[in-house]
C-alpha cells in the first residue's frame, strides 16, 4: 500500500471515528423517551434512581416551588410577613388559568396568596407574590435566578413566577430535586404549605392537585405542573420511619400517570432491594452531570388532536382520577386502614383520599377565630347571591325572547286552523254514515245551511243508495195474460 493510500486510509478511519462519536453524543444528549425521573434521599441528597434526570425540561407550574421558596425566604428574613397585604394588579388579573380571578385592586395577604398558589396552582397569585416581593415580575425573576445560582441549579433559568409557557423558562429533574431538597432543609417551619389538603374560598372548594396527598402513606408534598410542551409533571415528597424521599416525574401523559409513577418511585425507595448494594453509586443529586441539549416539546403528544380528550394549557388539574370521596366521610377508618397496608403503587388511585378539612382562604386583611368564620360566611353568601342573580338574569333573558318571537301564539293559530282542514279530510275513510255535506256543515257558519235548503233532499238519496224505498226498485215484468184473461179484459 502506498503512502498516499495509507494516509487516505488513516483519514477515513479518523472521519468514521468522528462520525461515530458525534452520533453517540447526540444519542446520549437526547432522552431515550419523552420522560424524566429522579428519586433522591432528601436528607443526604443521594440519588437512588435517575432517568434523563439532567435533560433540560420546561418546568411548568413546578416553577411555583421557587416562587414559594423566594417568598418564604423573604418572610424568614423579615423583609415581609405572612400578614402583609398585597394588591392584585391588572397584570396579575390577565394571567391565564388556573387562577382565582380576583378583580384588580383586590387585596390578599401573603399567607392566603401562598395557599391559593400551592393548592390551586393559581397563576395570578404567583404574580401577586412576585410583584409584592420583587417589585415586578422581572425583578422577582432576577431573585429567582440568583437563588437558583446559589443553590447550584446550573440548568435552570426563570422569566416568570408561575411557569406559563415560555421557551426561555427551563429546568431539569436534577435542578428541581436540588430545589425541593432546599425547600425542606432551609424552610422547615413552612413545610405546611407543601402538603395542604385543599382550600375553601366561600362555596368553592379545591383539593390539592397532588393526588398522593391523603392517599399515599407518608405523602407530604410538594407540587404539580403542566403545560402542553412539558407534559404532566410532579415533585412528590414522602416520609416514613424518619426517612424522607423526593421523587421528580417529568413528561407524563396524564395526571394519573404522573401520580402512579411517583408512587412507584417512592415505593421502590422505601422498600429497597437486597441487591441494591450491587448497583453502582450515582452519587448525590448535585453531582449528576448536566446535559447540553434543548428541552423536548411534547405538545403534539400531550395536546394533539389524536387524544380522545386533548389536554389544555389550564389543565393542571386533569380530571382523570374519579374517586368516591363520599366513602371517606362515611367510614374514614376504613380508608386509613387501607392506606396503612403495603399497597401496590398501581392501586394508589383506587384508594379513597382521607379527607381533611380544607383551609379557609379569603381576601382582605388577616382574620382569625370568629372573624375568620364571619369572613367565610360572608363570601359564601356573596357567591350564593351572585349565582342566584346569574340564574335570574338567564331566566329573564329567556322569557324576554318568547313574546318577541310570538311562537306560542303562532302555534295556537296553527292549532285553531288545523281542525277545520282535518275535519274535511276525516270522512275520507268512512264509506257509510254521514255525508260529506253533513260533515262540512259542522265547521261552516250557520247561514250556509239556510242558503242550500233544496239541495239537501236531492243529495240524500244519492248519498244513501242502500235505504232506497221499494217503489224506486226496478219493476218486475208483467206476466203475459192467458187466453181467458184476454177474453175477459174490457175492450175499447
Query: Helix- and strand-based class?
Result: alpha+beta
State mean pLDDT (0 to 100 scale). 77
Order of helices and strands: HEEHEHEHHHHEEEEEHHHHEHHHHHH
Number of strands: 10
| Percent of sequence in beta strands | 5-15%
Query: How far apart lie the N and C ends?
Result: 164 Å
**How large is the count of helical segments?**
17
Q: Write down the overall geometry.
A: globular
Spatial strand arrangement across the major sheet: 2-1-9-8-7
Helix content: 40-55%
The whole-angstrom Rg is 43 Å
Uncertain parts: 1-8, 15-32, 317-341, 419-473, 481-492
Largest sheet geometry: 5 strands, antiparallel
Task: Describe, in plain words, how this protein is organized in 3D.
Helices cover 44% and strands 11% of the residues. The protein contains 17 helices and ten strands. It has helices at 3-29, 63-76, 90-93, 110-120, 123-134, 137-151, 173-186, 255-271, 299-303, 326-330, 332-340, 369-405, 407-425, 436-441, 447-451, 455-463, 483-488, and strands at residues 36-41, 47-51, 85-87, 107-109, 198-201, 204-207, 219-227, 231-240, 243-252, 359-360. The chain starts with a helix and ends with a helix. The strands form three sheets. It has a five-stranded antiparallel sheet, with helices on both faces. A three-stranded mixed sheet has the order 6-5-10. With 492 residues, it is of the alpha+beta class. Mean pLDDT is 77; it is low at 1-8, 15-32, 317-341, 419-473 and 481-492. Strand 7 and strand 8 form a beta hairpin.
Write the layout of secondary structure elements.
Elements: H1 3-29, E1 36-41, E2 47-51, H2 63-76, E3 85-87, H3 90-93, E4 107-109, H4 110-120, H5 123-134, H6 137-151, H7 173-186, E5 198-201, E6 204-207, E7 219-227, E8 231-240, E9 243-252, H8 255-271, H9 299-303, H10 326-330, H11 332-340, E10 359-360, H12 369-405, H13 407-425, H14 436-441, H15 447-451, H16 455-463, H17 483-488
Parallel strand pairs: 5-10
Antiparallel strand pairs: 1-2, 1-9, 3-4, 5-6, 7-8, 8-9
Amino acid at each position: 500500500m502506498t503512502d498516499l493510500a495509507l494516509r487516505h486510509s488513516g483519514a477515513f478511519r479518523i472521519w468514521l471515528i468522528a462520525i461515530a462519536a458525534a452520533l453517540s453524543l447526540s444519542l446520549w444528549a437526547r432522552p431515550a423517551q419523552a420522560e424524566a425521573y429522579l428519586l433522591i434521599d432528601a436528607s443526604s441528597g443521594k440519588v437512588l434512581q435517575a432517568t434523563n434526570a439532567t435533560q433540560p425540561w420546561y418546568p411548568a407550574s413546578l416553577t411555583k416551588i421557587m416562587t414559594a421558596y423566594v417568598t418564604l425566604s423573604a418572610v424568614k428574613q423579615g423583609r415581609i410577613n405572612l400578614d402583609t397585604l398585597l394588591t392584585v394588579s391588572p397584570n396579575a388579573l390577565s394571567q391565564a388559568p388556573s387562577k382565582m380571578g380576583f378583580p384588580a385592586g383586590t387585596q390578599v395577604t401573603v399567607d392566603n396568596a401562598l395557599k391559593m398558589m400551592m393548592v390551586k396552582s393559581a397563576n395570578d397569585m404567583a404574580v401577586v407574590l412576585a410583584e409584592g416581593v420583587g417589585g415586578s415580575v422581572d425583578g422577582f425573576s432576577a431573585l429567582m435566578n440568583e437563588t437558583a445560582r446559589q443553590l447550584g441549579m446550573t440548568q435552570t433559568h426563570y422569566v416568570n413566577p408561575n411557569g406559563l409557557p415560555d421557551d426561555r423558562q427551563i429546568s431539569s429533574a436534577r435542578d428541581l430535586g436540588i430545589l425541593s431538597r432546599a425547600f425542606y432543609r432551609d424552610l422547615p417551619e413552612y413545610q405546611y404549605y407543601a402538603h395542604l389538603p385543599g382550600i375553601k374560598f366561600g362555596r368553592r372548594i379545591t383539593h390539592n392537585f397532588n393526588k398522593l396527598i391523603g392517599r399515599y402513606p407518608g405523602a407530604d408534598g410538594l407540587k404539580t405542573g403542566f403545560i402542553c410542551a412539558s407534559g404532566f409533571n410532579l415533585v412528590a415528597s414522602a416520609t416514613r420511619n424518619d426517612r424522607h424521599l423526593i421523587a421528580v416525574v417529568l413528561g407524563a401523559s396524564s395526571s394519573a400517570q404522573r401520580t402512579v409513577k411517583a408512587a412507584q418511585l417512592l415505593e421502590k425507595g422505601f422498600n429497597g432491594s437486597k441487591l441494591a448494594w450491587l448497583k453502582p453509586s450515582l452519587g448525590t443529586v448535585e453531582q449528576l452531570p448536566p446535559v447540553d441539549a434543548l428541552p423536548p416539546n411534547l405538545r403534539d403528544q400531550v395536546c394533539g388532536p389524536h387524544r380522545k380528550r386533548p389536554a389544555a394549557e389550564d389543565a393542571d388539574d386533569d380530571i382523570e382520577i374519579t374517586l368516591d370521596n363520599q366513602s371517606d366521610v362515611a367510614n374514614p377508618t376504613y380508608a386509613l386502614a387501607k392506606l396503612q397496608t403495603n399497597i401496590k403503587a398501581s392501586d394508589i388511585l383506587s384508594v379513597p383520599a382521607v379527607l381533611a378539612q380544607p383551609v379557609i382562604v379569603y381576601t382582605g386583611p388577616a382574620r382569625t377565630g370568629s372573624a375568620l368564620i364571619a369572613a367565610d360566611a360572608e363570601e359564601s353568601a356573596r357567591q350564593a347571591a351572585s349565582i342566584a342573580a346569574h340564574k335570574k338574569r338567564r331566566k329573564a333573558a329567556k322569557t324576554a325572547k318568547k313574546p318577541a318571537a310570538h311562537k306560542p301564539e303562532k302555534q295556537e293559530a296553527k292549532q285553531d286552523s288545523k281542525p277545520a282542514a282535518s275535519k274535511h279530510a276525516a270522512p275520507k275513510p268512512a264509506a257509510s254514515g254521514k255525508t260529506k255535506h253533513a260533515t262540512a256543515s259542522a265547521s261552516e257558519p250557520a247561514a250556509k245551511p239556510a242558503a242550500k235548503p233544496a239541495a239537501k233532499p236531492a243529495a240524500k238519496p244519492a248519498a244513501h243508495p242502500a235505504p232506497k224505498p221499494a217503489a224506486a226498485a226496478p219493476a218486475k215484468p208483467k206476466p203475459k195474460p192467458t187466453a181467458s184473461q184476454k177474453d175477459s179484459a174490457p175492450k175499447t
